[in-house]
Amino acid sequence: MRIVVFTFFFICTHVSVLQAQDRCGTVENEKKLLQNHPAKETPEQFEKWMSTQVAKTIKNQNNQRTQSAYTIPVVVHVIHNGESIGTGVNISEAQILSQLKVLNNDFNRQNADQTNTPTLFQPVAGSMDIEFVLAKQDPDGLPTTGIVRVKGSKTSWVLNDNYTLKSQSYWPAEQYLNIWVTNLTDYLGFAQSPVSPLAGLEEASNDRLTDGVVVNYRVFGSIDDGAFSLKTQYNKGRTLTHEMGHFFGLRHIWGDVSSCSGTDYVADTPVQSSSTSGCPVHPQTSCSTTKMFQNYLDYTDDACMNLFTQGQADRMITILLSSPRRKELPNSPALQTPVSVADDLGIKKIISPGTTACSGLLTPSVLVRNYGNNTITNAQLQLKRNNSVIETKNIILSLAPDAEQQIDFNFISLTSASATTFDFTITFANSHADNNAVNNLKSISTSTSTPTGLPLTESFASFPSSWSKDNPDGLTTWQTTLANGTSAMYINLYDYAEMGATDKIITPQLDLSNTPTAALLFDRAYAQYDGTTGEGLKVLASTGCRFDNSPDVLFNKTDAALATATSRLSRFVPASTEWKTEVISLSQYAGRQVQLAFESMNANGNNLFIKNVRFVTSSILDLAIVQLESPSFITCLGSPTPAVRIRNNGNIAITSFSVSLSVNGGSNTIYHFGNQILPNEELVVNLSPMILNGGTNQYTISVLEPNGSTDIDPSNDSRSYQIAFNTANEVIPLREKFETASKNDWVIIGAPQQTTWSTATTNYNTSLVYNGFTNTKIGEEGWLISPILNLTDITKASAYFDISYAKRSTGNETLRVLASTDCEHFTTELFSASGVALSNIAQETSWLPSVSSAWTRQQIILSSLAGQPNVRLAFVATNGNGNNLYLDNIEFFANEDSQPSLLEVPYSVYGGLASPLKITFNFDTRQSAFIQVFNVMGQLISELNLTNVLNQTFPIEMPNQGTGIYLIRVQTDTHVSTKKVYWGN
């Protein structure tokens, strides 16, 4: 069973917009991090270290610093959605300052509501004597407000986005307390815990790239200092106070167990058996003692919290004095206002070399910046190689303040299989020693590999010494394994919590100098975790031995396209039948040296494997079908011309091949081609028109005999496609309830052997259902396509439909409504919703609606399609292995009324008394209607003859008639009636 739990990574939970919010999931997330990283210290190891350190802190307390002795530099990263400052997620500076004010008051026990601390607890109330301030200089030493605003790559974030979120904007955690404020949707906030410096547990502190606190923007700040848009229960800034307690080592006051045996390792906090929510009346009793629910580390509302204890303060001071990264914050240069000097040229970054480089000639280069007040007109830079000066470079510049320029040094030669340290130093600026030495030096260690000739085979019985790994976050990465007895490389994405993290294994330099033909072959295996998307594998190529500068992408597959086995909730280990061989041509690098990297992208889904990597110089023939270009899966042509896109996946040019086509299981028609397709190129070939049957047809297309020989990979040689031939026409208004047998006007279609829409019995009698509950094939689609709608005679139109769905934790289905104006190509999206946007209902069992409240009514406006003669709509369900999605009561109107009349009777005449006289219809099927108006003398006043009447509303004309009583006679295909009305003011 997959355990989604644990760190001393503190996480404040947000269950649902409609439900009460838990604040933290500490215990579960501690277990998760420990499970993912066995080298990380356990809570028991941490607390053993803490017990001795806290004792020292208490012993030396009288000699510690005085009020505000600890000053902590804060950087607030506002990850917004492009709003103007002060709007939405992009909160104002005033809101940020109000939160810092709360933080400082709470930690120093200067909070105004300290008077609400019960008399019982006042003797143990504590202060930490600390001040949180916005950073004064950024990592480059430049002045800063301490607030960074970045438009995020997503509009909302969840805990699993931890790595991706924090990579949007990050300052070194040794110098800055990073706080990220954003649209965090599943939690109020979370903090990363401190660690101990115990020997042998160094891996426990390698999470520096994610160290800090994340808070939802709706709970950041206090209404005491402004009319900020904050959640009612959490509008006084105590979420950050709570999370900052975790950041400095505090645990929840009840010890995270549902009994009286829990502990937070603090002596002066009372024992209690569970968390406290809301704001109860004091006193409350638990475990035969009075609960301290006013403590910042309980779960009460903001207005009910008002104290840390002295024991908690001692524990936080201990962390601040002793824990890696935390202990460095009070001495950070970020606390100092940067001093502007006259001549300050600094090295901003090393451009070349990187940590790896190719053997041979290389141009060292750096990017310099003018950090001073004067224009830099000349400078001297020095380059050392392994501590020996190899070049002193005097340059003429015209670099204005804040301007940057790349400086290149002379070529140097790197030998293979070497490790070299390079030091770049600025020695003079404007003909004298630079006024600021802090930014004058940058160093890098660079390794080179030995160029390896082909052929080359790697079985991964152990990790090859000539290969390397790139593990940016220092966490989970590629490792060797035995997969059911087969040696392979794999990366444990199943337990890898850092969403979006990438990891590479890198080959040695491959020497293709004398190799005109080359190819890479490797086997891969992967299964999706149900409901997870965003996981992938790339093969990258670089002729410069670096992968940080737009390498070539030779292979890129994600999710269902990457999968070689069915999706599952269990940990994936491939069977012998669950591997797929890939062939990639390398002939474009003939005559050169190239280095390749296999790069994984994590979505905390399931395990990814590669094995049997082979670099060959023999000819590889692999011709593959990419897709059917035309016809589309629905067409109005009875004899369309098939067009097929094919690709040369091999490493030599293909100059002849054949294509076979079978329609509906009939005989194969063979087509021969003499076109040239170079390696990695694609070609679209046209076949002869084929007659289709009415309804659904199946094409089976195969590519044969590339260059008159056998294809190395038959798995991509043949594909089947379903094509519906349908010319049924309808006009608006129109209603479809799926109660009668199909008249071949609506089309249900999907790829062969894939789940699509089907009928089901619900409380609405017969409805359509897309079964996502049992379908483990993520990304499959089911299409429901309307007949051709002729909208030439209308100016406005809309459609309504009912959907019923229940969310499930395994994944979410998506429903889209697409439009076509040429009968077959659906290019316009009218509606899209998934998960909570489809339903607020949550259910882990198979969903079946049984009451009308389980359905929601949706409207889409079609007026942009008015005037078009060949409109189709498609209702597209995309599988997420979540739950069943139901569709019913599709109804088209010749208006945009957001609340159309839904009568319980076939028609209704109304109005006449100081309002226009109208008639509204609601038939099950279209009818004709004849309307006559008579006065009380029996004289005919007006009449109206209507056709194609379904759900419309029509005015009844009363030309030049005076006030009085009139008779309205209505005759339809199924009804005749007369109604008396009063006409007048």
Counting structural domains, the number is 6
Give me the count of strands: 62
Helix content: under 10%
How many helix segments? 7
Q: How much β-strand is present in the residues?
A: 35-45%
CA-to-CA gap between the ends? 74 Å
Largest sheet: 7 strands, mixed
Tell me the structural class.
mainly beta
Description:
- By secondary structure, the protein is mainly β.
- The chain has six domains: 9-334, Collagenase (Catalytic Domain) (3-Layer(aba) Sandwich); 345-448, Immunoglobulin-like (Sandwich), CATH 2.60.40; 452-616, Sandwich (Jelly Rolls); 628-711, Immunoglobulins (Immunoglobulin-like, Sandwich); 729-893, Jelly Rolls, CATH 2.60.120; 907-983, Immunoglobulin-like.
- The protein is built from seven helices and 62 strands.
- The strands form 15 sheets. Strands 1, 2, 4, 5, 6, 7 and 8 form a seven-stranded mixed β-sheet that branches.
- Strand 51 and strand 52 form a beta hairpin.
- Helix 2 (43-59) packs across helix 6.
- The longest helix has 17 residues, at 43-59.
- The termini are far apart.
- Residues 1-21 and 200-206 have low confidence and may be disordered.
Task: Give a summary of the structure in a few sentences.
The chain is built from seven helices and 62 strands.
Keywords for this entry:
985 residues; mainly beta; Collagenase (Catalytic Domain); Jelly Rolls; 6 domains; seven-stranded mixed β-sheet; 7 helices; 62 strands; globular; disordered N terminus
